[in-house]
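Fig. S4 source data, part A: sequence.
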Amino acid sequence: MDIITENLQVSTAYLDKLREQLRRDSVCARMMQLCEDGWPAQSNSEPALKRALQAFLTVQVGLLLKGTRLIILSTMRNDVRAELHEGRQGMVKCRECAQQTVWWPGLSQQLDELVLNAKHAA
């Protein structure tokens, strides 16, 4: 968790908000429950839960992680994207920080677009 808080400069309040949002989101809450209680042999009844992810998912201090990266819900991604881009020079640094700290589907493409749009606006 230290690398996440160092690289993103996240506050305790932000982590508390993320914990609460993860508990409220039905898919994330179910994934967290499965991480803690064990995954069923068959997940056909729950297609939203991708079995390919199960080897990478863990729960630590009430937060859902993919490897060592925080899983960020869609409702909280704009702030994280802005934080990743702020103060970093270009796509490589932005992606490098993201790859160490956060994850969500489509993150790399969204960061590419953010950096390209910022270059065009300058």
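Fig. S4 source data, part B ends here. Residues 2-121 form one domain.
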